[in-house]
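Thread: Newbie trying to understand structure tokens

Hi all, I'm a second-year student working on a class project, and my supervisor (Dr. K.) asked me to get a predicted structure for one chain before our next meeting. I've only ever worked with sequences, so writing a 3D structure as a token string is new to me. If someone could post the tokens and maybe explain what I'm looking at, I'd be very grateful. Here's the chain:
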Amino acid sequence: MHTQIKQCLYSFLSLILISSPAKASNLDCYATPDCSALGYTMTEADCEGTHFVRCPTDTSKLFCKPNLYKSTCEVGDVLGNDKKCYDAVNLPQSVKPIAIVFDVENRLAVALTDVKKDGSAGSESMSWSATACDTLNLENCTTTDTVITTCGTDGRANTNAMLASTCNGTAYAANAVSAYYPSGCSADFCKAEKWFLPSLRDLNIISSNNSAINTILLLLSSKGASQLQNAFYWSSTESSYANAWSFGMPIGPMTNGGKSYNYAFVRPVLHY
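---
Reply by user tm_fold:
Sure, no problem. This is what the structure looks like when written as tokens:
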């Protein structure tokens, strides 16, 4: 019985081998389907989450729900609580807006609202500090040309110096921004003590983009955002032992007012 089966298999295989050249000429060959033509046009970096389908012939190509964040941030983009940039009109419901990008080169974004002395969202004018002194580790920036280009331009370092100072009494403006903790923040980069008082250079850049920033802030008003006021805002740039620089929105002027004068508002910024 086994011998008969073996003979049958041998005869069948021999028939296939003998007939293969003739049969091969009748075969039709088809090109491998193109992934992009089938809708597999994304990569993992383009996809939202981990739910996607891979192309059978090229598993690096995917079909998925696209990410809405932008790979490159631009001025006027919304900075989300995931530290990614979005167009205001394409902000996913799951993402909470934190700030508006205003300086791409230095990766800076401005808060959605002014802050009060206690760091809560809202607008109230305040003094730069309670008293006057020459703040340790702050440059005295007296030349209007350099004050927005090279002097006292690091808002983070300036704010740290203000917070560390004891001779100024209460550093109202620095304390306010340092205490700010936006309700939508869920990551370390935007928590309290991450925000700082913008330098005069920063405020000048914000002024240059005031219209675009205020347009986005208006779009986000239902999420707690408020537009920049037509008023003076404190900077962290010191002018002298007695004065600090402030900037009048939307287009200036800039002035070196007395530190203890209660006339300017505060808007925090942060690095992203």
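A couple of things are worth pointing out once you decode it. The longest helix spans residues 2-24. The two ends are 80 Å apart (CA to CA). Feel free to ask follow-ups in this thread.
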